[in-house]
Amino acid sequence: MLKEFKDFIAKGNVMDMAVGIIIGAAFTAIVKSMVADLINPFISLFIGGIDFANLFVLLGDGEFATLAEAQEAGVATFAYGSFIMAVINFLIIAFVVFMLVKAVNKAKEAAKEPAEPEAAPEPKGPSQEELLAEIRDLLKAS
Length: 142
Prior knowledge:
single chain, mainly alpha, Non-ribosomal Peptide Synthetase Peptidyl Carrier Protein, Chain A, two-stranded antiparallel ribbon, 5 helices, elongated
């Protein structure tokens, strides 16, 4: 069983997947920061200073200025702003992954050896009947 596990781990696909997950986690942190620190301020500027992270509806009693205060007090909240942020993060990550896959596919296509160009079809010569007719005409002329 230990040998099977070693064989499984040593396979290239498993290692590629592990590297992809690690890079993906690091990339997600970068995108979250980009959305929270760069994109949201511009969106807030255009929609009147609204901070998506603090958009919520209280499902319990009380008055709270921020989502963090409400959650700290243990009041049930419907945090739709957090959901909006998750959707924005997803769309950005999906777009960047799409662009990466597109670039990798383009690089793979460029790296492929160009296929041998198809040989131009040989020019067709005269048919057998045409040759025989030509020979007959030459024999008549002589």
